[in-house]
Amino acid sequence: MKKEYKSCDFSKGQFNCRNIIVFMNIKKYLWTWTFLVPILAWLSYVGNTVFSSGYYSVILALFLMGSVLAAVYHSEVIAHRLGEPFGTLLLAFAITVIEVGLIISIMMGAKGLETITLARDTVFAAVMIILTGIIGSCIVIGSLRYREQSFTLQGVSTALITLTSVIIFVLILPNYTISHLGGEYTSFQLLFIALISLGLYLGFTMIQTFRHRSFFISPENKLSKNQPVQDNHELISRKQLYISCILLLLSLGIVVLLAKLLSKDVEHIVVSAGAPKSLVGIIIAGIVLLPEGLAAFRAAKSDQIQTSLNLAFGSALASIGLSIPAIAIISVMTGIRMTLGIDIKSTILLGLSLFIITVSLATGRTNIMQGIVLIAIFLIYLFITIVP
């Protein structure tokens, strides 16, 4: 009997046999569900050539959401295997692939100047959603359960100075250059800014993963070096890692294709409702950031605010520092015009968001009021977009 209990007890008595059996059943259910959904989503996408109706679009939208959730699960499996901060970096990169693929596919499929502001609207929406919506919600979720949560200040500070610089280069500076009017860069300016932004993102990545990796690890994890830690490498086999990588690619790929397929329906609904077309950019950014947001919320709920902030800032930096250079190079090569400069209203909201984030995260600890203020800014941003 003692031997049987010992085989079941693998975390200093924190789990008994019954807990392990429940955990394994949940894990099996999640694995089966997240394995089937991407495959069925691909089949439904192929079936769109045969079935074409409003009801079928609803089915496609459900598979889109299911594929996003499957992507979250498999990215978390990979993240647990790789460890921090490599896991969050991988998820941020995967989300950026979705964003770039979606924006470019829509821009290439449109005619004339229909999508001249699509990249700007989507990237600006992604930044605002991350800085106010996701980070604000994570702080509130964590504060409701744990009152205060701590994080490593050096990592957040490094991310903020990099993000602020790239945001100004990409979204604000184009309004004040004189070589091209209307918030546009010339092709030469666009390529130069794209290279600078890419260089800053790569520099931040090197800091995060190698030179100062400790900046992006939770203070609690640093203080518990001598305590036994659950070995994720033993819990997640190499075979499961490879399968999750393949399923993650399948999930991300179908998300891009389904989002592009449904983008016309989304645009039609937005126009029919009398809302501005910039709302399309918010919807696209919301779909793209859903996997990252869900992962960040779950981390905050588990008292891992450091992981939430790593995900949020990493995604914001990748969204603007990695996707804009990729889109810029393709737009110059194909001759597609791209407006990047935001208006004064958006500039004020963006500046306020960066200021509040900087002040709120300057102490290395979070409280619920910080999150409430950020969510308030996010709601104002949505309201002003819909009712300009």
TrEMBL record:
Residues 58-209, 245-386 form the Sodium/calcium exchanger membrane region domain. One of its GO terms (molecular function) is sodium:proton antiporter activity. GO terms for cellular component: plasma membrane. Gene3D superfamilies: NCX, central ion-binding region. Keywords: Membrane, Transmembrane, Transmembrane helix. The chain crosses the membrane at residues 29-47, 53-74, 86-110, 122-144, 156-176, 188-207, 241-259, 279-297, 309-336, 342-361, 368-387. It is a multi-pass membrane protein. It is found in: Membrane. Its main location: membrane. This is Ca2+:H+ antiporter.
